[in-house]
Every structure is written in C-alpha cells, then in structure tokens.
C-alpha cells in the first residue's frame, strides 16, 4: 500500500538529463530529485539554468495536483522539499506523447509551417524513447507492432493526453499563458494501470505570453534567446505566486 509516511531514501536508480531518481525503503515509491542541468539538441547542447530544478519541481507538482483533481491519475504522492518529490514507482511506457495546439518547433520545421500558426484541432505525436536513436517519431501501428503499449493502453493514453490538454489550456489561459505544445510520459503501476508520470514544466512545454507572444520556456535556452532564468521565474510566479 502507498503511504505518505516519511520514506527513507535509498540508492540512486536512474540519472536522466534533468532528474535523478532514488529508490526508497518502500518498493512502490521512489524519490525524484530535480536538477538545474539543461540539455537540448538530444544532449549536444548542455548547460545549467540556475534555480530550474526547484521551479520545475514546484510547477510540475502544482499542475499534476490540478490534473489529479480533474480525474487524471498521476504518479505524484507528496512534495518532500524544494527539489524532491515522492512518486509512485512506475514502469515507464517508452513513448514521448506530444500534444500540439499551435505549430512550433519540430512540427513547424518538418511541415514548413510558420511558427505560431494555430491548427484546426490538437495534434498528437508519439516518439519512441531511445536517446541513441534520437527519439524517432512513430505511429500507432509501430507502437502496437513493437508491443510498446497495447491497443487499450494507447487508446487510454491518447484520451488522457487530449483531456490533459483541455484542462491545462484553460487553466494556463487564466494565468495569461498560451499552451503551444507539450510532452507527456505515462507509466504502469504494478497492477498494470496507467498513470501520468515524469514532469510538466517549462522544460517540457511551450508557454507563450498570451498578450505579447514572448517565449517563457526552455526554447529560451535551446535557441540562445537570453533571459532563461527570468522566464522560468515568471512561470513560477504566474502559477504559484501567492501560494509560497
Ligand atoms: P518539438 O517541437 O521539439 O518536437 O517539441 C514539442 C514539445 O515537446 C515541446 O513543448 C518540447 C517538448 N519536448 C520535450 O519535453 N522533450 C523532448 O525530448 C522533445 C523532443 C520535446
């Protein structure tokens, strides 16, 4: 059973580009620790964004709590401190699930569409999580043929992703932000059920100021636009200001 009693931190079981994951004395729980490290271009560009780990931890937990209240099951158990969060241990479905409302980034480039062009309906894309392959884009047919998810899981994941988009779009618009696109990851609990995992933060979303179009996300780092820390701080202030 999952309990919120103080977990004892165990060995590091995984280190990713932006987070470390530790086992705990409860086999069903682990601790995610957010780092200030930033990478882009599939790891070719590396740097640090001061304070990013703490901001992403708080912002992601805030958005996951919102989604949980609206019926989306997530891995979140409890925020432990500035950078660390207790989560349910999941087996990650090896897919990046990208939802797009406005053409930007790789879609704008691939299809030759100007960045900022709204689309008639949200687009869902899947990428197979494999750094060595550069996370190639795949479709439903690949996912089922390779057994990365079952048909029922994929149906659930796509339905959840679109519902998450609706909830976040509306919520963020109240904070003066346009949700351009974002990336989700899902995991399986020991009983096989699917929950939202990983993070939702300025690292994994494109947030544009609704009035000025200013980019308030990791594109400032990816594209050397400057003002990276200020952009992350602005997202924290708009979403959590008054709550800290
Ligand atoms: P893209 O336009 O570069 O494909 O990115 C689409 C969205 O997904 C954008 O909000 C950034 C996010 N994303 C990640 O979080 N991790 C990734 O590895 C990639 C490629 C995109």
What does this structure look like?
By secondary structure, this protein is of the alpha+beta class. It has two domains: 9-90, Phosphorylase Kinase, domain 1 (2-Layer Sandwich); 92-229, 2-Layer Sandwich (D-amino Acid Aminotransferase, Chain A, domain 1), CATH 3.30.470.20. It has helices at 52-69, 105-111, 140-146, 151-173, 219-222, 228-240, and strands at residues 9-15, 19-24, 29-34, 37-40, 45-48, 76-79, 84-88, 91-92, 95-102, 118-128, 137-138, 177-188, 194-197, 205-209. Strands 8, 9, 10, 11, 12, 13 and 14 form a seven-stranded antiparallel β-sheet that branches. A hairpin with an 8-residue loop joins strand 10 and strand 11. Helix 1 packs parallel to helix 6. 34% of the residues are buried. The model has no long low-confidence stretch (mean pLDDT 96). The protein binds thymidine-5'-phosphate. Thymidine-5'-phosphate binds next to strand 9, helix 2, strand 12 and strand 14.
Features of the shown structure:
244 residues; alpha+beta; Phosphorylase Kinase, domain 1; D-amino Acid Aminotransferase, Chain A, domain 1; 2 domains; 7-stranded antiparallel sheet; 5-stranded antiparallel sheet; 14 strands; globular
Structural class: alpha+beta
What is the number of helices?
A: 6
CATH class of the largest domain: Alpha Beta
SSE ordering: EEEEEHEEEEHEEHHEEEHH
Number of domains: 2
Look at the structure and name the CATH superfamily of the largest domain.
ATP-grasp fold, B domain
């Amino acid at each position: 059973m999952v309990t919120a009693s103080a977990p004892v931190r165990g060995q590091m079981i995984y280190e990713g580009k932006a987070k470390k994951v530790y086992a705990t004395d409860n086999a069903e729980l682990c601790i995610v620790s957010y780092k200030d490290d930033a990478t882009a271009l599939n790891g070719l560009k590396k740097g640090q964004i001061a304070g990013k780990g703490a901001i992403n931890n708080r912002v992601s937990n805030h958005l996951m709590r919102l989604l949980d209240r609206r019926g989306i099951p997530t891995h979140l158990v409890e925020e432990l401190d500035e950078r660390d969060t207790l989560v349910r241990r999941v087996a990650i479905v090896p897919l990046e699930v990208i939802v797009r409302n406005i053409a930007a980034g790789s879609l704008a480039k691939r299809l030759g569409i100007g960045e900022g062009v709204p689309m008639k309906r949200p687009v869902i894309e899947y990428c197979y999580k494999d750094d060595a392959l550069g996370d190639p884009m795949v479709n439903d047919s690949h996912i089922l043929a390779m057994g990365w998810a079952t048909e029922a899981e994929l149906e659930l994941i796509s339905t959840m992703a679109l519902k998450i988009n609706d909830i976040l779009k509306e919520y963020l618009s109240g904070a003066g932000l346009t949700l351009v696109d974002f990336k989700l990851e899902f995991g399986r609990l020991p009983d096989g059920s699917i929950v939202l995992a990983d993070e939702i933060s300025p690292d994994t979303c494109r947030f544009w100021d609704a009035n000025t179009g200013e980019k308030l996300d990791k594109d400032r780092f990816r594209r050397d636009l400057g003002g990276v820390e200020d952009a992350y701080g602005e997202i924290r202030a708009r979403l959590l200001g008054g709550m800290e």
